[in-house]
């Protein structure tokens, strides 16, 4: 399959860039041919990814400078805002099209007319692209709602797929003494923010909250990490904030680091991660902080509540006092701090790359289901032990719940859930065994068309009344199994994760046992239906 | 894009599906697409009589009309027998009887589609349950041109979709455009897995010019103080005119100054209704009316009432909203999606004249309530049911179908 991923500019270290790179790698693993189409040369990407990039624009594509572009099988248009390559979307004559929406910052949140005008144009253009896409994919529930409510996206064809982060890099660990020395933070308690120094991030609110925090936590230090000189807007904003910090007498307690190389180490430095941003389509730093065992306090706005779940504290948007109160609570209450760390570690597992890959593969399968000669979900690629793992786990849990032994912490329960969900997603991906887009062809010279015609027409009396209904029944059964497992897993994990072992009532114990019985019955049904399962 | 529409009839023939197709075709022409229509020469689905010219250019749309066999008594009988027997065993011969009896049967339309369909990017079938859908479908399939379908299904009426060949047409389309979520669910139930886009029906606001209530009433001979209920549309048995009449009769016992405008083509059902006993003094009944009278009626009424039990969408409610009038419909699936009960109109249980009477009584007592409901309806119309909005959906479906067609070639 020939895949084209379009993006205005590919920057290896930003969230969208990482998303594009991860998708490209998924396609390569599937054996697809991938081209990343950008308008400017890529930045900070490795040579393997750079080799996939073609730099072009709409005018050149229209002039057929990249002829293969118009013959693609799958197109993924990433949309962080308007760029000329998007204008090819309505004119594609073949293939499947995914519109990948990363949200656009409302113009009023930029203190810059030029950027604000671009944002306005970007927002206005969304509906015109959405309506031509086979599927829309967004990073968060907030983005999905935005697309459906404000840009007329079809709910049936709009899917949420949260971004992932490299959990192998973002792990808890000790503070780096060199960094502590560099920032003069030895013995200090660090409040960290990571992001562009743009007005919509409302870093100024963090500055306003600092005097209130310092009154209760005198050793607090605000560390602001991110691009502070990328453009004039950033420079003006930072300069204004520095002046305000000096005016408040906290200039020595606020540190702008600029862009840093080792972000995980900075996340581990922090006692608390804080963001007062008023508009986030996702909020990758939140997840990175949670994965590093850093508690999070953010504004209750846009995608923040969805990303955070119950793993952090939310403050009123635009309210410096409330932000300060929440920061003080986390910095002074050790029990709360510990609880948030544990919850954050568990929540971060939901954004694991393997989970993203599994769901992305499912979306691809759905998008290209009508294309001919597709590599249909490959049952042989399923791990040989996956079904046993899926079915075996709940039975074991019912007999001897792991948490009762004290061996499983909340993080372990979450890890189990993530692993099981991965297996079930794989089951779901491979459920549709029907060769929907199969086209009878023959390469035989001269008589090829005749052979294809005979095969197509003289087998239809068997295929249509007998084979197709049988296979469709199997597909429906597979989907039903997968759906049922999802429901059971959710129910079981909800009971198990919410209740401490010694606090379970008899009724709750019985509910768990019933669920285990259901899983066993389901396993028996699958074994009966599929002789090869064993 | 080059688009070929295949429809059972096309304006000047009357009908919601016909008007919908003409509106969309003309809007697409304005947007720079090439649009042709293959249809019959008929204006009357009861006979499929060949009365219209073979070709005309209507607002940029090339309308090619083909002769169809006229439907006579034997055709009706064959169709009715087919329907009566089909669901007993779903036999092919009964489906064939339905196909032959429904019409329009137009060999010329089939041959010309077969000959020319490959010149178009997409073939669009308008209205599923007449026979042109199957002939157009087969011809387009044979020429391997991607097909999109606007079926206009009545979810409560299986005759519009639950016949074997109708299901096959649905399953063979590259994209389907529906009017409501209920219709989409039904198409999914049938087993269609491709894209289904919800368009609804859009109206051209310019066709509904502002009109004074007082002047409209004068034109229709109505007093300013009269509480006017409008029942607009063909008076088929399922349109709920009997329910409206029953509610109005009881209302007339308590209120002298009320009127029911029953405007639209008469049918056997309505003839039986008028021949029945009971007070009719408040009824102003007219058959097919001019557009001018229709607009006057919409502007003059206090409420548009159509508790129909068989609607695929309900364009009449939207037309009432064009004059900010409240509407009352029956709580069937399609209408429930269109009318927000208590926000832009009222929904009553199907066939419940007591509930309808209560709603009318409430509107009669509080004119302000009706005004608020009507204003909300107007806002909904401008947001969701304009011609441009629906044409966007149509364009999207064509683009998807075109891509899918290219993929399978």
Topology as H/E string of chain B?
A: EHEEEHHHEHEHEHEHEHEHEHEHEHEHHH
Strand numbers in spatial order across the main sheet of chain B: 3-4-2-1-5-6-7-8
Q: Give the integer mean of the pLDDT values of chain A.
A: 83
Please name the CATH topology of the largest domain in chain B.
Rossmann fold
The quaternary structure here is heterodimer
Low-confidence stretches of chain A: 374-409
State the share of residues found in helices of chain B, binned by percent: 40-55%
Query: What is the number of beta strands of chain A?
Result: 13
Annotated CATH architecture of the largest domain in chain B: 3-Layer(aba) Sandwich
Helix content of chain A: 40-55%
Overview of the structural elements:
- The complex is a heterodimer of chains A (534) and B (409).
- Chain A is built from 20 helices and 13 strands.
- With 534 residues, chain A is an alpha/beta fold.
- Chain A has 3 domains: 2-160, 3-Layer(aba) Sandwich (Rossmann fold), CATH 3.40.50.2000; 177-350, Glycogen Phosphorylase B (Rossmann fold, 3-Layer(aba) Sandwich), CATH 3.40.50; 379-533.
- Chain A is globular and about 85 Å long.
- Chain B folds into 2 domains: 2-202 and 386-404, Rossmann fold (3-Layer(aba) Sandwich), CATH 3.40.50; 205-384, Glycogen Phosphorylase B (Rossmann fold, 3-Layer(aba) Sandwich), CATH 3.40.50.
- Helices cover 46% and strands 16% of the residues of chain B.
- Chain B has helices spanning 16-30, 73-89, 92-102, 107-116, 132-142, 164-171, 181-190, 213-220, 241-254, 268-275, 291-300, 315-321, 333-338, 353-365, 367-384, 387-408; strands spanning 2-7, 34-40, 55-58, 61-66, 122-126, 147-150, 175-178, 196-198, 227-232, 258-263, 283-286, 303-306, 327-330, 345-348.
- Chain B has an 8-stranded mixed sheet, with helices on both faces. A 6-stranded parallel sheet of chain B has the order 11-10-9-12-13-14, with helices on both faces.
- In chain B, 52% of the residues are buried.
